[in-house]
Design brief:
Strand content: 5-15%
Order of helices and strands: HHEHHEE
Number of helices: 4
CATH topology: Arc Repressor Mutant, subunit A
CATH architecture: Orthogonal Bundle
Number of domains: 1
Helix content: 40-55%
Strand order of the largest sheet: 1-3-2
Distance between the termini: 23 Å
Structural class: alpha+beta
Largest sheet: 3 strands, antiparallel
CATH superfamily: Winged helix-like DNA-binding domain superfamily/Winged helix DNA-binding domain
Radius of gyration: 13 Å
Length: 104
């Protein structure tokens, strides 16, 4: 059975992408995948505070190191807050909310 990602508001996605500096060790493409994974976790949890577990990271082709790098940058930019669990899923609270999608 296919899964679908709800439409992601482009302006919200662009804020996350633009917050990633274009330098060695950071990738705008990985940042976009991470942002889409965040949006997916946000939509399935139906809450601004949710867990980004390993299964979701794998589903979007992410590894812990790249995910952590993007999340730390976004936290410094004030887009989200992170609660790191020792060996547990990362708890994220979105500070910058996606606008409600109106479809296409």
């Amino acid at each position: 059975m296919d899964e679908f990602i709800p439409p992601v508001p482009f302006t919200w996605l662009k804020k996350f992408r633009d917050a990633i500096p274009n330098r060695r060790g950071t990738s705008p493409c990985i940042a976009l995948c991470t942002a889409i994974a965040l949006y997916y976790a946000y939509k399935i949890s139906k809450s601004t505070t949710f867990k980004l577990n390993r299964a979701i990271q794998i589903k979007f082709g992410l590894n812990y190191r790249n995910t952590k790098r993007s999340l730390k940058i976004w936290e410094k930019q004030g887009l989200l807050k992170i609660q790191w669990g020792n060996g547990q899923a990362i708890t994220i609270t979105l500070q910058e909310m996606p606008a409600p999608s109106s479809g296409y």
